[in-house]
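To fix ideas, we now present one chain and its tokenised fold:
***
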Amino acid sequence: MAEIPYRSKELVSELAHALQEAAQGLPPLSLMHVCGTHEHEISRHALRQLLPKNVKVVAGPGCPVCITPASAIATAIKFATLNPPPILCTYGDIVRVPIGRGSLWQTKSRGAEVRVIYGPRDAVRMAEENPDRPVVFFSIGFETTAAPVASLLAAALPKNFLIYCCHRYVPAAVEALAADAESPISGYLLPGHASVISGYQAYAFLPERYQKPAAVAGFEPVDILAGILSLVRQIQQRRPTVANCYPRAVKPEGNRQAQQILEQVFDRSDAAWRGIGILPGTGLELREPFRRWSALAHYGLEEEAEDDILPGCSCHLIMTGRRQPSECGLFGKACTPENPKGPCMVGGEGTCRAHYLYPEPEDV
């Protein structure tokens, strides 16, 4: 069977050599990716070991499970423990994320009906199969997962279906990061999946307003190294732009149909990111008339208050590139995938989990 070209050892070697040449004479560079899958693949393929000594790639807030605020998880626990209780359904990773009052998984172990699903249609199917009980779908994620949710909400739904939305919009979050005058980030490796929806033109503000280079990249080793090389060359040539290093999937304008359904169903709002704070324009809130499906409105509840960061946890610093997992005192000791103390050790896209599974030299 022919080797997938995007994993070609020869191409990887050529890109690594080109990176060494392009980085010569440049000051230390700190490049940030904003995608949990990028972190997983960078760690899995040990790509950091191929980078020039003056080029560092750090993780940004690109893991949807990790950035979901503790208040949202606390509110989901509140739904699951109402009397009489609805069926609460959500994705597998989020049920294990710890907060001060426990996790959804622990709530389930105490008798609450918390069910794991794999997609939004599963939640609708659950409502159809349980017509005499409310079903609350705790829906998280970026525009990639928000788009199919919006499509469902725009269609006919069972009367007992309710949704608690905690979706976030990535381009606005990247702008909030870039607007930080004290940020040491030299350029941004942009997410592949989310950019399929939003398009790479959504990030034009990076070179235009902040003079920061950007590159959209896919998820294979060649994709990622090509994206990093593009950033280094943009810095070398002092010509920041938004490069598309994932043209087989991402278009300049993105998926217009998905964007239209998102705009039909959701309003953009200021929203909390776990441990980071309120980021302007990053939330996706239900518009009228879609608020009739809102679980908060149905039960007359407000979001619960909850501290984002547990004692000793460094996830908020790791998600903003200010600390590496190995610099957290809990990493690999009190905090493991089997016993996570913070969200970055839970999900498949979490930075700490990636470093635990595929240790970097500094992690050992």
